[in-house]
Amino acid sequence: MTLFLKYDFHLACRTILKEHLDALNISYTLGNLGELHIKGDLDESKKEALENSLKKYGIQFLDDQKSTFVERIKSAIDMMLRDENAKSVKVSTYLADKMNYSYSYLSNIFSESTFTSIENFVILRKVDFAKQLICKTDLTLTEIAFKLNYSSVAHLSGQFKKTTGLTPSTFLRIMKNKKDYAEEV
Amino acid sequence: MSTKLLNIALADDDEDDRFLFSEAIDEIDIRTKLSLFNHGQELMDYLNLPKVVLPNLIFLDLNMPIKNGMQCLTEIRKNPTLRDIAIAIYSTSSSEKDIEETFLNGANIYINKPNNFTKLQEVIEKVLQLNWQYHTSNLNRETFLYRI
Protein backbone atom coordinates (compact mmCIF):
# COMPACT_ATOMS: atom_id res chain seq x y z
CA MET A 1 0.00 0.00 0.00
CA THR A 2 1.18 3.50 -0.72
CA LEU A 3 -0.02 6.58 1.09
CA PHE A 4 0.54 10.03 -0.38
CA LEU A 5 1.78 12.73 1.93
CA LYS A 6 1.79 16.47 1.81
CA TYR A 7 4.22 18.30 4.06
CA ASP A 8 4.22 21.74 5.52
CA PHE A 9 7.93 22.33 6.13
CA HIS A 10 7.33 25.60 7.84
CA LEU A 11 4.96 24.14 10.39
CA ALA A 12 7.14 21.05 10.86
CA CYS A 13 10.18 23.21 11.68
CA ARG A 14 8.23 25.40 14.08
CA THR A 15 6.89 22.33 15.89
CA ILE A 16 10.35 20.77 16.19
CA LEU A 17 11.80 24.04 17.49
CA LYS A 18 8.98 24.41 20.00
CA GLU A 19 9.44 20.90 21.37
CA HIS A 20 13.18 21.27 21.81
CA LEU A 21 13.16 24.80 23.17
CA ASP A 22 10.42 23.93 25.64
CA ALA A 23 12.33 20.82 26.73
CA LEU A 24 15.30 23.06 27.63
CA ASN A 25 13.09 25.65 29.31
CA ILE A 26 14.14 28.43 26.97
CA SER A 27 11.69 31.25 26.44
CA TYR A 28 11.76 32.60 22.92
CA THR A 29 9.91 34.12 20.01
CA LEU A 30 10.27 33.17 16.35
CA GLY A 31 10.84 35.95 13.84
CA ASN A 32 10.50 35.90 10.09
CA LEU A 33 12.99 34.19 7.80
CA GLY A 34 14.53 31.86 10.35
CA GLU A 35 15.29 34.25 13.19
CA LEU A 36 15.05 32.89 16.70
CA HIS A 37 14.92 35.57 19.41
CA ILE A 38 15.79 34.32 22.87
CA LYS A 39 14.82 36.20 25.99
CA GLY A 40 17.96 37.16 27.87
CA ASP A 41 21.20 35.28 27.31
CA LEU A 42 21.66 31.63 26.58
CA ASP A 43 24.47 29.89 28.43
CA GLU A 44 26.93 27.88 26.35
CA SER A 45 25.91 24.44 27.62
CA LYS A 46 22.27 25.04 26.76
CA LYS A 47 23.22 26.44 23.38
CA GLU A 48 25.29 23.37 22.68
CA ALA A 49 22.52 21.01 23.82
CA LEU A 50 20.06 22.81 21.56
CA GLU A 51 22.42 22.78 18.61
CA ASN A 52 23.02 19.03 19.04
CA SER A 53 19.37 18.13 19.39
CA LEU A 54 18.43 20.13 16.28
CA LYS A 55 21.25 18.79 14.14
CA LYS A 56 19.48 15.57 13.24
CA TYR A 57 16.61 17.56 11.68
CA GLY A 58 18.99 19.47 9.47
CA ILE A 59 18.46 22.66 11.50
CA GLN A 60 21.70 24.54 12.08
CA PHE A 61 22.76 27.77 13.74
CA LEU A 62 24.37 30.16 11.35
CA ASP A 63 27.19 32.08 12.90
CA ASP A 64 28.96 33.57 9.96
CA GLN A 65 27.30 36.94 9.31
CA LYS A 66 27.60 36.79 5.55
CA SER A 67 26.28 33.28 5.16
CA THR A 68 23.43 34.13 7.54
CA PHE A 69 22.57 37.03 5.33
CA VAL A 70 22.69 34.91 2.19
CA GLU A 71 20.51 32.25 3.86
CA ARG A 72 17.97 34.95 4.67
CA ILE A 73 17.94 36.14 1.07
CA LYS A 74 17.37 32.55 -0.02
CA SER A 75 14.47 32.07 2.42
CA ALA A 76 12.94 35.32 1.21
CA ILE A 77 13.17 34.02 -2.38
CA ASP A 78 11.47 30.77 -1.32
CA MET A 79 8.74 32.72 0.40
CA MET A 80 8.22 34.85 -2.65
CA LEU A 81 7.85 31.86 -4.97
CA ARG A 82 5.22 30.37 -2.69
CA ASP A 83 3.33 33.61 -2.17
CA GLU A 84 0.37 33.91 -4.53
CA ASN A 85 0.12 37.62 -3.84
CA ALA A 86 3.71 38.31 -4.82
CA LYS A 87 3.16 37.25 -8.44
CA SER A 88 3.01 40.70 -9.91
CA VAL A 89 5.91 42.00 -7.80
CA LYS A 90 9.43 42.16 -9.23
CA VAL A 91 12.09 40.05 -7.46
CA SER A 92 14.21 43.11 -6.81
CA THR A 93 11.33 45.07 -5.28
CA TYR A 94 10.15 42.14 -3.19
CA LEU A 95 13.59 41.41 -1.74
CA ALA A 96 14.47 45.02 -1.09
CA ASP A 97 11.14 45.42 0.66
CA LYS A 98 11.39 42.27 2.81
CA MET A 99 15.02 42.64 3.76
CA ASN A 100 15.12 46.39 4.08
CA TYR A 101 18.29 46.84 2.05
CA SER A 102 18.79 48.13 -1.45
CA TYR A 103 18.68 45.47 -4.13
CA SER A 104 22.16 46.29 -5.40
CA TYR A 105 23.58 45.71 -1.92
CA LEU A 106 21.76 42.37 -1.59
CA SER A 107 22.81 41.35 -5.05
CA ASN A 108 26.49 42.12 -4.39
CA ILE A 109 26.63 40.16 -1.14
CA PHE A 110 24.82 37.26 -2.77
CA SER A 111 27.13 37.05 -5.78
CA GLU A 112 30.22 37.39 -3.60
CA SER A 113 29.47 34.32 -1.55
CA THR A 114 27.46 31.93 -3.70
CA PHE A 115 29.20 31.83 -7.11
CA THR A 116 25.95 32.85 -8.76
CA SER A 117 23.61 35.82 -9.05
CA ILE A 118 20.22 36.28 -7.39
CA GLU A 119 18.58 36.15 -10.83
CA ASN A 120 20.20 32.80 -11.63
CA PHE A 121 19.33 31.43 -8.23
CA VAL A 122 15.69 32.42 -8.67
CA ILE A 123 15.61 30.56 -11.99
CA LEU A 124 17.24 27.49 -10.45
CA ARG A 125 14.77 27.57 -7.56
CA LYS A 126 11.79 28.04 -9.84
CA VAL A 127 12.85 25.13 -12.01
CA ASP A 128 13.37 23.03 -8.87
CA PHE A 129 9.88 23.94 -7.76
CA ALA A 130 8.51 23.06 -11.22
CA LYS A 131 10.28 19.68 -10.97
CA GLN A 132 8.56 18.96 -7.68
CA LEU A 133 5.17 19.94 -9.07
CA ILE A 134 5.73 17.80 -12.17
CA CYS A 135 6.62 14.73 -10.06
CA LYS A 136 4.33 15.08 -7.10
CA THR A 137 1.10 16.57 -8.46
CA ASP A 138 -1.28 16.01 -11.35
CA LEU A 139 -1.04 19.63 -12.46
CA THR A 140 -0.60 20.13 -16.19
CA LEU A 141 2.37 22.13 -17.46
CA THR A 142 -0.01 24.98 -18.27
CA GLU A 143 -1.19 25.06 -14.65
CA ILE A 144 2.39 24.86 -13.36
CA ALA A 145 3.44 27.69 -15.67
CA PHE A 146 0.63 29.82 -14.30
CA LYS A 147 1.37 28.91 -10.67
CA LEU A 148 5.04 29.86 -11.07
CA ASN A 149 4.20 33.04 -12.89
CA TYR A 150 5.59 32.21 -16.33
CA SER A 151 3.98 34.12 -19.17
CA SER A 152 3.35 30.91 -21.13
CA VAL A 153 4.00 27.15 -21.18
CA ALA A 154 6.60 27.79 -23.87
CA HIS A 155 8.48 30.10 -21.52
CA LEU A 156 8.47 27.50 -18.74
CA SER A 157 9.55 24.68 -21.09
CA GLY A 158 12.26 26.87 -22.59
CA GLN A 159 13.70 27.85 -19.22
CA PHE A 160 13.41 24.26 -17.97
CA LYS A 161 15.29 22.95 -21.00
CA LYS A 162 17.91 25.67 -20.84
CA THR A 163 18.56 25.09 -17.13
CA THR A 164 18.43 21.30 -16.91
CA GLY A 165 19.28 20.25 -20.46
CA LEU A 166 16.12 18.13 -20.46
CA THR A 167 12.61 18.90 -21.65
CA PRO A 168 9.89 18.65 -18.98
CA SER A 169 8.47 15.55 -20.67
CA THR A 170 11.88 13.80 -20.85
CA PHE A 171 12.43 14.69 -17.22
CA LEU A 172 9.07 13.23 -16.21
CA ARG A 173 9.70 10.06 -18.22
CA ILE A 174 13.11 9.57 -16.57
CA MET A 175 11.69 10.15 -13.08
CA LYS A 176 8.88 7.63 -13.72
CA ASN A 177 11.25 5.03 -15.14
CA LYS A 178 13.60 5.64 -12.26
CA LYS A 179 10.85 4.91 -9.77
CA ASP A 180 9.81 1.71 -11.57
CA TYR A 181 13.47 0.72 -11.89
CA ALA A 182 14.11 1.25 -8.18
CA GLU A 183 11.12 -0.94 -7.33
CA GLU A 184 12.36 -3.73 -9.59
CA VAL A 185 15.86 -3.86 -8.11
CA MET B 1 34.52 34.54 -2.27
CA SER B 2 33.60 31.71 -0.02
CA THR B 3 36.47 29.89 1.63
CA LYS B 4 34.85 26.47 1.69
CA LEU B 5 36.72 23.83 -0.24
CA LEU B 6 34.97 21.42 -2.61
CA ASN B 7 36.44 17.93 -2.84
CA ILE B 8 36.26 16.61 -6.38
CA ALA B 9 37.22 13.21 -7.81
CA LEU B 10 37.72 12.31 -11.46
CA ALA B 11 38.03 8.75 -12.80
CA ASP B 12 39.17 8.65 -16.43
CA ASP B 13 41.59 6.23 -18.12
CA ASP B 14 42.75 8.79 -20.69
CA GLU B 15 45.83 10.64 -19.46
CA ASP B 16 45.30 13.67 -21.72
CA ASP B 17 41.71 14.04 -20.54
CA ARG B 18 42.81 13.93 -16.90
CA PHE B 19 45.45 16.56 -17.58
CA LEU B 20 43.07 18.93 -19.40
CA PHE B 21 40.47 18.51 -16.69
CA SER B 22 42.87 19.44 -13.91
CA GLU B 23 44.19 22.41 -15.91
CA ALA B 24 40.61 23.62 -16.48
CA ILE B 25 39.49 23.21 -12.88
CA ASP B 26 42.55 25.11 -11.62
CA GLU B 27 41.49 28.22 -13.50
CA ILE B 28 38.02 28.35 -11.95
CA ASP B 29 37.26 30.67 -9.04
CA ILE B 30 35.65 28.04 -6.85
CA ARG B 31 38.21 26.50 -4.49
CA THR B 32 38.60 22.80 -5.15
CA LYS B 33 40.80 19.87 -4.27
CA LEU B 34 40.97 17.38 -7.12
CA SER B 35 41.84 13.68 -6.78
CA LEU B 36 42.54 11.74 -9.98
CA PHE B 37 41.99 8.04 -10.65
CA ASN B 38 43.08 5.98 -13.69
CA HIS B 39 40.12 3.64 -13.68
CA GLY B 40 36.98 2.70 -11.79
CA GLN B 41 38.57 0.14 -9.50
CA GLU B 42 41.14 2.68 -8.30
CA LEU B 43 38.33 5.11 -7.44
CA MET B 44 36.27 2.47 -5.61
CA ASP B 45 39.29 1.30 -3.60
CA TYR B 46 39.87 4.89 -2.54
CA LEU B 47 36.23 5.51 -1.58
CA ASN B 48 36.21 2.37 0.53
CA LEU B 49 39.33 3.29 2.52
CA PRO B 50 38.60 3.69 6.23
CA LYS B 51 38.49 7.33 7.39
CA VAL B 52 38.70 8.69 3.85
CA VAL B 53 37.46 12.26 3.26
CA LEU B 54 34.66 11.62 0.78
CA PRO B 55 34.44 13.83 -2.32
CA ASN B 56 31.44 16.18 -2.70
CA LEU B 57 31.27 15.43 -6.39
CA ILE B 58 32.60 12.64 -8.63
CA PHE B 59 33.19 12.90 -12.38
CA LEU B 60 32.99 9.46 -13.99
CA ASP B 61 34.07 8.46 -17.47
CA LEU B 62 31.89 5.63 -18.83
CA ASN B 63 34.39 3.59 -20.82
CA MET B 64 37.25 2.52 -18.59
CA PRO B 65 39.20 -0.74 -18.25
CA ILE B 66 38.90 -3.03 -15.18
CA LYS B 67 35.79 -1.30 -13.85
CA ASN B 68 33.72 1.01 -16.02
CA GLY B 69 31.75 4.09 -15.02
CA MET B 70 28.36 2.39 -14.98
CA GLN B 71 29.62 -0.29 -12.57
CA CYS B 72 31.07 2.38 -10.25
CA LEU B 73 27.81 4.32 -10.38
CA THR B 74 25.74 1.28 -9.43
CA GLU B 75 28.12 0.34 -6.60
CA ILE B 76 28.17 3.88 -5.21
CA ARG B 77 24.37 4.17 -5.24
CA LYS B 78 24.02 0.82 -3.45
CA ASN B 79 26.43 1.80 -0.68
CA PRO B 80 24.73 3.68 2.17
CA THR B 81 27.83 5.69 3.08
CA LEU B 82 28.50 6.78 -0.51
CA ARG B 83 24.93 7.09 -1.72
CA ASP B 84 24.61 10.86 -1.27
CA ILE B 85 27.66 11.91 -3.28
CA ALA B 86 26.72 13.86 -6.41
CA ILE B 87 27.80 12.09 -9.58
CA ALA B 88 28.48 13.64 -12.95
CA ILE B 89 28.95 11.27 -15.89
CA TYR B 90 31.65 12.58 -18.18
CA SER B 91 31.57 10.77 -21.49
CA THR B 92 32.00 11.08 -25.25
CA SER B 93 28.84 9.08 -25.84
CA SER B 94 25.76 11.10 -26.72
CA SER B 95 23.45 8.14 -27.26
CA GLU B 96 20.09 8.74 -25.64
CA LYS B 97 20.14 5.17 -24.36
CA ASP B 98 23.40 5.67 -22.45
CA ILE B 99 22.16 8.94 -21.05
CA GLU B 100 18.89 7.53 -19.74
CA GLU B 101 20.56 4.45 -18.38
CA THR B 102 22.96 6.54 -16.29
CA PHE B 103 20.07 8.61 -14.93
CA LEU B 104 18.16 5.43 -14.04
CA ASN B 105 21.19 4.20 -12.16
CA GLY B 106 21.36 7.38 -10.14
CA ALA B 107 23.61 9.84 -11.99
CA ASN B 108 22.84 13.51 -11.29
CA ILE B 109 24.50 15.18 -14.25
CA TYR B 110 25.35 13.94 -17.72
CA ILE B 111 28.13 15.78 -19.55
CA ASN B 112 29.19 15.28 -23.12
CA LYS B 113 32.96 15.74 -23.16
CA PRO B 114 33.49 19.10 -24.85
CA ASN B 115 35.99 19.23 -27.70
CA ASN B 116 37.83 22.39 -26.77
CA PHE B 117 39.44 23.77 -23.65
CA THR B 118 37.32 26.91 -23.22
CA LYS B 119 34.14 24.90 -23.48
CA LEU B 120 35.51 22.37 -20.98
CA GLN B 121 36.16 25.15 -18.50
CA GLU B 122 32.64 26.52 -18.94
CA VAL B 123 31.11 23.11 -18.44
CA ILE B 124 33.12 22.32 -15.30
CA GLU B 125 32.30 25.72 -13.87
CA LYS B 126 28.60 25.20 -14.51
CA VAL B 127 28.66 21.78 -12.84
CA LEU B 128 30.54 23.10 -9.80
CA GLN B 129 28.09 25.97 -9.42
CA LEU B 130 25.13 23.62 -9.67
CA ASN B 131 26.61 21.22 -7.18
CA TRP B 132 27.42 24.13 -4.89
CA GLN B 133 23.78 25.21 -4.97
CA TYR B 134 22.62 21.71 -4.12
CA HIS B 135 25.20 21.61 -1.36
CA THR B 136 24.17 24.89 0.27
CA SER B 137 20.47 25.44 -0.58
CA ASN B 138 17.48 23.30 0.14
CA LEU B 139 16.98 22.17 -3.42
CA ASN B 140 15.37 18.78 -3.82
CA ARG B 141 18.07 16.12 -4.31
CA GLU B 142 15.60 13.53 -5.56
CA THR B 143 15.15 15.52 -8.72
CA PHE B 144 18.82 16.53 -9.15
CA LEU B 145 19.04 15.72 -12.89
CA TYR B 146 20.88 17.81 -15.46
CA ARG B 147 22.24 17.27 -18.91
CA ILE B 148 24.99 19.60 -20.02
Q: Can you count the beta strands of chain B?
A: 6
Rg from Cα of chain A = 20 Å
So what's the CATH class of the largest domain in chain A?
Mainly Alpha
CATH superfamily of the largest domain in chain A, please? Homeodomain-like
Mean pLDDT of chain A: 86
Oligomeric state of the chains? heterodimer
Distance between the termini of chain B: 25 Å
- Alpha-carbon Rg of chain B, integer: 14 Å
CATH class of chain B: Alpha Beta
Strand content of chain A: under 5%
Describe what you observe in this structure.
- The complex is a heterodimer of chains A (185) and B (148).
- Chain A is mainly α and 185 residues long.
- Chain A has helices at 9-23, 44-55, 65-82, 91-99, 103-114, 118-136, 141-147, 153-164, 168-184; strands at 28-30, 36-38.
- Chain A contains 9 helices and 2 strands; from the N terminus they run αββαααααααα.
- Chain A has a two-stranded antiparallel ribbon with strand order 1-2.
- Chain A is globular and about 55 Å long.
- The mean pLDDT of chain A is 86.
- Chain B is an alpha/beta fold and 148 residues long.
- Chain B contains 5 helices and 6 strands.
- Chains A and B meet through helix 5, helix 6 and helix 9 of A and helix 4, helix 5 and strand 6 of B.
